[in-house]
Design a protein that fits this description.
The protein is α+β, with helices and mostly antiparallel strands and 406 residues long. The chain contains nine helices and 23 strands. The strands form four sheets. Strands 1, 2, 3, 4, 5, 6, 7 and 8 form an eight-stranded antiparallel beta sheet that branches. Strands 12-13-14-15-19-16-20 form a seven-stranded mixed beta sheet, with no helix packed on it.
């Protein structure tokens, strides 16, 4: 057998490292999943590439094909979405809405272009629909370092069907801060993967740290990153997300791009009327109506109680997911701004990675529990009702409660 000299070994190692580097660079910058249609039969594959290309495709199948693009049973072309994000470093966004999928099925896919390269094979699952059990997480106020990665890892272990983020994703407050969004998307891609290897789709609501300090201009010019990355979830920045027979979400904007009142309040009233017979109605938004840290009469909290709270009461909203305050809380059942036996419960308050703030030694009159603690919520929906768990650092259960069928 021919012996390999030290110099030859070094040469081989250098060549191998070069090959690995090329392979890593060949993938799209980021790949993430969102919804713009029914989660039982569709999903959106979002791809950020280093620069525009002529054709970007997604190859997918219900069986793994180990990345061999010729072996996948279906493919779709991703559409180029011109975006202000390109001003950062020339990156380009492509989105492929995959439709006509089988409910409750695992799908395997690769995506990219022939010149720049394709992703490794990835996996997602459609929701089963009907009254099949659902598990999701809710959190907000994340950032890109510190507590966020351990919390993401804990959240992924819960194997949620999807994750709802109530604003303040990357804390990138200007167009120039795209490295923070890169880090946020990388964290999600690496750590928000279920134990069986599934990517976790993102359902988003906007927060104040997604918006530039401007009072004029289009939604995209005022929020280039959020609108660029997540602006196709619905026809407006506020939107509805229907899941199966029994669940609907209302994703709202607490005055960051659209005021609470006016067209958003009118839209919310119509959507609540449209879905009034759906048993479980959730709202997710950023600034709390019932805060646990900030002052009760803060401007956005007052506007939310004025414009939205009567609608929540009228249509018996089940739970409101609130954020922004960087603490943990669960309210008492509330209706007409009073504690009642059966009313809407407000949970939060957005500390999915940020440093926890202080709370009062005694909870405020409307809150059942308050803590200075990082957290996210896990919600399980079944024929028996709802189960809620608040998970803190190191997997500690901060709170849990159940709600029966309405």
């Amino acid at each position: 057998m021919k012996r390999i000299t030290a110099a030859t070994a070094l040469h081989i190692a250098a060549a191998l490292c070069f090959t690995i580097s090329l392979t890593a660079e060949a993938e799209p910058l980021h790949t993430y999943l969102t919804y713009s249609d029914a989660p039982e039969t569709s999903i959106d594959v979002n791809l950020l590439l280093k620069s525009p290309v002529s054709v970007v495709e997604v190859y997918y199948d219900t069986e793994p094909r180990q990345g061999n693009v010729t072996a996948y049973g279906s493919h779709a072309q991703a559409a180029y979405h011109k975006s202000l994000m390109e001003l950062s470093d020339g990156r380009a966004l492509y989105v492929a809405p995959l439709t006509g999928l089988k409910p409750g099925a695992d799908y395997y896919f690769v995506a990219g272009d022939q010149k720049g390269g394709f992703t490794r094979e990835r996996k997602f699952r459609t929701l089963a629909g009907g009254d099949t059990p659902i598990r999701f997480i809710d959190g907000g106020d994340m950032g890109v370092e510190g507590r966020v990665v351990p919390l993401l890892t804990l959240a992924a272990k819960e194997a949620p069907d999807f994750a709802v983020i109530g604003g303040d994703f990357a804390y990138a407050n200007s167009l120039a801060e795209f490295p923070k969004w890169d880090r946020w998307l990388q964290n999600w891609d690496e750590h928000m993967v279920t134990p069986d290897g599934r990517m976790i789709p993102i359902v988003g609501a906007i927060g104040n740290h997604e918006v530039l300090p401007l009072t004029f201009g289009t939604h995209e010019s005022r929020s280039p990153w959020y609108v660029g990355l997540f602006g196709r979830q619905g026809p407006e920045i506020f939107h509805t997300f229907r899941v199966g027979d029994d669940v609907v979400f209302f994703l709202l904007d607490t005055g960051h791009l659209d005021p609470h009142g006016g067209r958003q309040a009118e839209w919310l009233a119509k959507e609540l009327e449209r879905y009034k017979d759906v048993p479980y109605k959730f709202a997710t938004y950023h600034v709390p109506l019932y805060p646990a840290h900030r002052e009760y009469n803060g401007e956005n909290s007052k506007l939310g109680r004025k414009e939205w709270r009567p609608l929540f009461d009228e249509f018996a909203l089940t739970v409101a997911f609130e954020h922004h305050d960087h603490v943990f809380k669960r309210s008492k059942p509330l209706k007409d701004n009073k504690v009642v036996e059966r009313g809407t419960i407000y949970v939060g308050d957005g500390c999915f990675g940020r440093e926890p703030r202080t709370v009062n030694p005694t909870p405020r009159w409307y809150n059942e529990i308050e803590k200075s603690a990082a957290n996210f919520w896990v919600v399980e929906i079944s024929k028996d009702g709802l189960l809620f768990r608040a998970i803190g650092e190191k997997g500690v259960v901060l709170d849990h409660f159940a709600l029966p069928q309405p």
